[in-house]
Amino acid sequence: MAFRTARNLAYFSNYIRNYSTNGPLVNVTVNEKSGFATATLQRPSVNSLNLELLTEISHTLQQLEKNKCRGLILTSASNKVFSAGLDLFELHKPNADKIKQMWSTLQEVWIKLYGSSYPTVAVVNGHAPAGGCMLALSCEYRVMLNNFIIGLNEAQIGFSAPMWLIDGMRNTIGSRQAEFALTAGTLFKTEEALKIGLVDEVAQSKEEAIEKAEKFLNKFAKIPPHARSMTKAALRGANIQALVRNKDEEVRSYVDFVTDSQFQDSLGEFIELNLKQKLSK
Ligand SMILES: CCCCCCC/C=C/C(=O)SCCNC(=O)CCNC(=O)[C@H](O)C(C)(C)COP(=O)(O)OP(=O)(O)OC[C@H]1O[C@@H](n2cnc3c(N)ncnc32)[C@H](O)[C@@H]1OP(=O)(O)O
Predict the structure, then answer these.
(1) How far is Cα 23 from Cα 221, in angstroms, rounded to an integer?
(2) Pocket residues: Cβ below 6 A from ligand 1
């Protein structure tokens, strides 16, 4: 067991509380009874993933792993947006070095979350396009609130989702549905997402979603943690290894792609059409 004594659990809780004070963009709390951690993304206003938020998520996941977390609930402080995905303003006319770091940190986040030894649930309490969907897909279970959208809309912005993310989508909703969804860049409403298996349960309130998430995590209470994590690694390891082998090459091609004028033009159009905040000319 991860926490054999109440003292261990108390130490872990204090550790996490102390840690959380250092992270303004991700707040981590631990339920002392269950030992489950809740990581709440809180970058105003839509948790768009810039380098700072990605770095903090990556660091949080590392700490949770180190402290033998018993289960993680990932959610948002906003009641409208789980995460709006990559910060589109940072992708526009970018500094190549920063983009390189951003992409490499995004890969790290995926490797740590998708490959975590502890069980994970996303409480999707708001919209989750692109990178927001990626965070949810990396978890083992998704509970979503009604009247929001989720999906991988990269094609609409002018690029293809990377292979590891395509695999995540395929593993979750099946090849045929993934092909339809990815080529059209479809964003699904909550009920549609439930129907195709992109989310596992729907809840009417965040409280209900947290209850459902905890119920999922509690399913593993009697399963030896090492057996659970070995099985998860056996199921997910090949996808992770494929990215690890190709990590640097993918960063290089991503930087080339994003800095290319054709992508910059289509990104500019997407921002002008879809976001309230406009580009400074
Ligand atoms: C070559 C390989 C590359 C592979 C990369 C694959 C991985 C991931 C890629 C991505 O994540 S790309 C990002 C895609 N994201 C989107 O398409 C989301 C766009 N945003 C929206 O659709 C909506 O904003 C929303 C999230 C549905 C929320 O709608 P709502 O009506 O509630 O809010 P808004 O008024 O639209 O937005 C509020 C505020 O937030 C700003 N904003 C929204 N999204 C982003 C974003 N992604 N990046 C930066 N900023 C964003 C928006 O401009 C508003 O700003 P203010 O007007 O308040 O200043």
Answers:
(1) 29
(2) 45-46, 48, 80-81, 84-89, 127, 129-131, 134, 153-154, 157, 159, 161-162, 254, 257, 274-277
50 C-alpha to ligand 1 centroid (Å) = 11
Distance, in Å, from the CA atom of 15 to the CA atom of 30, rounded to the nearest integer, reads 10
ipTM of this model?
A: 0.96
Q: Under 8 Å CB-to-CB from 210, ≥6 apart: which residues?
A: 38, 73, 75, 123
- Confidence check: pLDDT of 81 > 70: yes
User: How far is residue 241's CA from residue 68's CA, in Å, rounded to a whole number?
Assistant: 22
Question: CB burial class (10 A; 0-12, 13-18, 19+) of residue 257?
Answer: middle
Supply the pTM of this predicted model.
0.93
Strands (E), 147-214: 149-151, 188-189, 201-203
Sign of CA dihedral 178, 48, 113, 96: positive
Residue matched to tokens 């209470």? 221
